[in-house]
């Protein structure tokens, strides 16, 4: 019954069209309890609900933060189940589209370590692509936040994605590197193209479009 109720709540939060946020706010304390569940199906639907609620204005994001959901969401980025990990990652990605303070809160909770781990472990391509998108949202923040990515050896891990056989991930990695060097206003290191700020090499053997 709990699974059915969580699935129904998730559909309410999604809506077509989505109901006014004021009508959905009472779901936040319920979702705060649901994401502590040990049931993967409940966790997945609760995270999808949060991904819908966090997709929008900084006001919505702040409501998610104040409901005390963020620490658990970061923890769920290490969940072994892709069905839980993907909506948790989408929610985290939405939250870091907020203002610099909201993004910094997620960094303070250790989100960078989790995101970079997703890039280097044997996860589905869709998860790596989502992680790249989330990191790209962080690079839209302050120079200090961008520097934190480099200090976490994040740029090295992103560089390695250039050799991925997925063209989508390759170009997301290239865009991230371009953004980093442009924002950081640094002298480009050897091996980087002076105009675009990234290695322009195609993965060995070309792209695999299968």
From TrEMBL:
The record's annotation in Gene3D superfamilies points to: Leucine-rich Repeat Variant
Domain of life of the organism encoding this protein: Eukaryota
Q: Which InterPro entries match?
A: ARM-like, ARM-type_fold, Arm_3, Armadillo
Can the keyword Iron be found in this entry's annotation? no
List the Pfam families.
Arm (PF00514), Arm_3 (PF16186)
Q: Which GO terms describe its biological process?
A: protein transport
Ranges in a coiled coil = none
- Keyword list, A-Z: Protein transport, Repeat, Transport
User: Member of which family?
Assistant: Belongs to the importin alpha family.
Name used for this protein in its record? Importin subunit alpha-1-like protein
Where is the organism placed in the taxonomic lineage, from the top?
A: Eukaryota, Viridiplantae, Streptophyta, Embryophyta, Tracheophyta
